């Protein structure tokens, strides 16, 4: 025995005090962005069935949510709108009086220091549910760029601190950067959904945002889950076009991609922990099949360990509460 040569790794694990001294990744409420779904109407706080504890809010009830987010030390929200009317061109996305624009202005008035991010896309606002203009069953790229730029400008006008384009048209960062600069918003950063996969993990979100495509799927613009090198090309072109943050989405099945994008770019990287990833854990924990708190904190820690600087997650409020009380 005495002559055996081996390393005693367990020395650093025997007490919580020592474990915390050598912990390499720290999770904190400052890392989180929490999503908010806003709807037209009054006195609405309605739970989204496939996303327990996530709600649709009308603007007159929104302060309840905002105040809670702020009290938990979460620094940023991302606003998703469910409009009352949709058309072929997604007109309500770039209406200065649209639901997202009204929500942004409302939140900034209530909490000027809370960072408000606007999701810049058309799919919630088009009657066909695609992220761009559709002609003969095809989602047109260049014709869509103008509308995206208009949407971003109107969100910035409403007071958005950051715009987050999620549509995956080619050239969307360049078009939006140009549009924002031309309108005098050169200081508004772009958090680009640079690496967004065509994923089955978005299912619950599409229920929540009423944005399921009415025909076909998003595979002609969102990425093939099998691809890794393509993620780096997507990240690179968004960097060239002027993105300030890079989002990788989804997160949990794509931790390898988060690491590569971080190492490759050196940019602030955001992990988008999407609706299906949330719903799976919620469902399992409601059945007592997993311990929700431990599994959520482990999952979020793994995203930071993989290289994410920021985590966009529906668990943000719960996780912030657990981190405060631990
Ligand atoms: C809009 C958008 C989607 C999500 C965020 N922005 C849906 C999609 O691309 O189908 C998904 C978010 C989630 O699942 O949590 N384009």
UniProtKB/TrEMBL annotation:
Enzyme class: lyase
Residues that bind Zn(2+): 121, 123, 131
InterPro entries: ALAD (IPR001731), ALAD_AS (IPR030656), Aldolase_TIM (IPR013785)
Keywords: Heme biosynthesis, Lyase, Magnesium, Metal-binding, Porphyrin biosynthesis, Zinc
Gene Ontology CC annotations of this record: cytosol
Active site: 196 (schiff-base intermediate with substrate), 249 (schiff-base intermediate with substrate)
Similarity comment text for this entry: Belongs to the ALAD family.
Alphabetical list of NCBIfam families matching this protein: PRK09283.1
Subunit structure: Homooctamer.
Protein name in UniProt: Delta-aminolevulinic acid dehydratase
UniProt lineage: Bacteria, Bacillati, Bacillota, Bacilli, Bacillales
């Amino acid at each position: 025995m005495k002559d055996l040569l081996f390393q005693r790794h367990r020395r650093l694990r025997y007490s919580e005090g020592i474990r915390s001294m050598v912990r390499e990744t720290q999770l904190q409420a400052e890392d989180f962005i929490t999503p908010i779904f806003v709807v037209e109407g009054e006195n609405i706080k309605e739970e989204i069935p496939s996303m327990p504890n996530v709600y649709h809010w009308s603007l007159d009830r929104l302060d309840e949510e905002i105040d809670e987010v702020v009290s938990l030390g979460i620094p940023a929200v991302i606003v998703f709108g469910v409009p009352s009317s949709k058309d072929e061109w997604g007109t309500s996305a770039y209406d200065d009086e649209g639901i997202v624009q009204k929500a942004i202005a409302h939140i900034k008035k209530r909490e000027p220091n809370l960072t408000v991010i606007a999701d810049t896309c058309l799919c919630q606002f088009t009657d066909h549910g695609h992220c761009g203009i559709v002609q003969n069953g095809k989602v047109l790229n260049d014709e869509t760029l103008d509308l995206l730029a208009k949407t971003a400008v109107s969100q910035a006008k409403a007071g958005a601190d950051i715009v987050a384009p999620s549509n995956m048209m080619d050239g969307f960062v360049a078009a939006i950067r140009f549009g924002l600069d031309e309108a005098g918003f050169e200081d508004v950063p772009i958090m680009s959904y640079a690496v967004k996969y065509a994923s089955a993990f978005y299912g619950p979100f599409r229920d929540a945002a009423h944005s399921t495509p009415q025909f076909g799927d998003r595979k002609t613009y969102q990425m093939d889950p099998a691809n890794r090198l393509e993620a780096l090309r997507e990240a690179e072109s968004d960097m060239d076009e002027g993105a300030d943050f890079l989002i990788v989405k989804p997160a949990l099945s794509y931790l390898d991609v988060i690491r590569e994008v971080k190492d490759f770019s050196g940019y602030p990287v955001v992990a988008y922990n999407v609706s299906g990833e949330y719903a799976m854990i919620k469902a399992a924990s409601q059945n007592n099949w997993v311990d929700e708190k431990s599994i959520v904190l482990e999952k979020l820690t793994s995203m930071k360990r993989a290289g994410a600087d920021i985590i966009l997650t529906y668990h943000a409020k719960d996780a912030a509460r657990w981190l405060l009380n631990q």
